[in-house]
Amino acid sequence: MRRLRCAFTLIELLIVIAIVAILMGLLLPAVQRVRESAARVQCENNLKQIGLACHAYHDALQVLPPGYLATQPYKDGANDTSPGWGWSAFLLPYLELENLARQLNFTQPIANSPGIQMLLKVYLCPSDVPPQLAFAILDATGTVLTYAAPSSYAATCGPDASDVADPLGQGVFYRNSHTSLLQITDGTSQTVLVGERAWVNSQGIWAGAISGGTMRPGPRNLWQSALAPAPCLVLAHNNWINIKTDADGGLDDFSSYHINGANLLFADGSVHFLQSITSDGPEHQDFQALGTRSGGEAIQVLDY
Fold first, then answer.
1. Domain spans in the chain, listed from the N-terminal domain onward
2. Which of 30, 36, 173, 189 has the fewest CB atoms within 10 Å distance of its CB?
3. Is the pLDDT of residue 30 over 60?
4. How far is the C-alpha of 244 from the C-alpha of 253, rounded, in Å?
5. Is 164 left (phi over 0), alpha (psi -120 to 50) or beta?
6. E strands, the chain, where?
7. pLDDT tens-digit profile of 150-175?
8. What is the mean pLDDT of residues 270-291?
9. How many CA within 13 A on the CB side of residue 273?
């Protein structure tokens, strides 16, 4: 009688392992693509919620919130931003975060409020890797001023010609801005409000511009010695998307860890995914044009 073989030979086992390894190699990229697609959709939903909140704020007050609120006279845009509360803090009541908003005293400096340490899901992109706790905000000497929760989004103050620390901006949000939708004469579908800026690239917060504070590079930023002034904590400008070669670390530019682009919220409430822009050319010029509220530019080539 023939004996039945009930075990694998070594060669058969190696073949099975090789087949499983090949299948895993094919499956993992697909799983990663699905996860990234879901993260990108969630990020888009975050920005849509922010857009709805902007319009609800505008309906109530006839203007959009300030880029950040400063009651001190303008000196340098870095050490004169107090109390400093930013656009995203003013939107809290319109994002079903009324309880948190009531904990904040908008007449007092940001650093005095423990509420700024609360992590808010609506201000965090799933593709970003922010800290799970509030992180230290430092001044230019490295002294800790306070601790604040991270944010993956920043509002635009305008094109490259508008610096985050300027007293005015060509965009919708800047120091003490009170822009109405009627003042966006370029058209709400042609004007950016808010976009992604990954915390792992630029350590932004949702609370505002802490006077004397600095924006520091995130852990994945190649330019670890770069610094930006306090308004950069909540503001960016329409210059680059996912720039890696800029010696300022791209701290004041939009960025994300989606594949080759970033989500941006427009003034009409729509959200569009724009491809990375890292070199000069027609797309770069168009992107800057999308940052102005009344520049009168014609968008030529940028597809969004």
1. 41-289
2. 30
3. no
4. 11
5. alpha
6. 68-70, 83-86, 135-138, 144-148, 153-159, 192-196, 214-215, 228-229, 235-238, 261-266, 271-275
7. 999 999 999 999 999 999 999 999 99
8. 97
9. 14
